[in-house]
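Methods — Computational structure assignment.
A single polypeptide chain was analysed. Its primary sequence is given first, followed by the predicted tertiary structure written as structure tokens.
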Amino acid sequence: MFQQLRRFSLVAAAFTAALAVIVGLAVPASAGYHYGLPGEDTQWRAVTYAGGPITSRSTPAEARDNHGDILHAWRGADNDGVWISLNNGPAYPLPTPTGYVQTYAAPVVIWTDDGSRGNFRIFHTGTDGHIYQQRIQLTTSYQLPATLPAPTKAPNDARTSDDLSIAAAALPNNSYMLGWNSQTSNDIWTMYYDGGSTAFATPSIVPNATSYKAPALAAQVNDGNAPWNQVVLAFTGTDNNVYMTRQRYGFGGWTNPQDVGWSRYAPSVTLSETGYGAVLYTDLDNGLMATRILRNGDSSEYYEENSYAWTGSAPLAVATGSALYYVINGSGSSLSGLLWKFATDFAALPTPPAPQW
């Protein structure tokens, strides 16, 4: 998939004029409707590993390191195990000391930079509702280690409903943030891990954010190209409206949640190195996917996915470089299994100003 995405980045110049319609993105979330993003592909492609197309009972997760390696993680198609594949190679089940990882929800994977090879971190909800992590560092030749690590339990009694996924966002210096629904209420919690001190902060509730479904997290912090320093949380509220709230990295506190749509499932959020991002969700009215493009701390008009693809689980939005693409677990005879497609390229857009907090 990664190699195919590099090909798509070359077409940005061909639709620069079309992308210009997104320049005025900081408009109310209720304004406008569009069929497909500028340059959006209509063809879906299978997400594969060495044995062929990947199949799962939920949407997969994926992350890339700074060397171009991609790690996929997914829940088994006919079991509750978590499987991984590096660079679309062989699939391996994640182990535990007594067997194999079990979950009723989709896993999530991020990559955090430790100044060297970094770490792929896979988070999943155990069948006991606790949050677990498996940290995988590639070998010096950028291969999976011979022995995959057993899971470790997140501290502070962090747990959620056993059928809800965990949210995670990579942050600088090998750090990250987790987000999850309370196991006993509709509150959403977050917890920060400091990679420098290797310590977790005390979990905290996100103000005015309640949900029955799993939240989503994304971050874009100054890396020499992007000055936005923001973390975005997206969630489907108890009213089925999709909301997003932002935090300026290093300052704490969250903005008041902003309504961006309404959805059947949990949303996905991603941020690109260009300062643009996207909230992707499944529209409550017709079951089709919808996107709000993020810019300058606000969201754009409504963009409906242009191939009328249906999915029975939460979709996934992924930004790599300046490219945005979608991943789904397709439903129906014509679109089944784990699929991906190119959505748009943000590179042709002017650099947005930093969000006003």
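Note: The CA atoms of residues 45 and 92 lie 22 Å apart.
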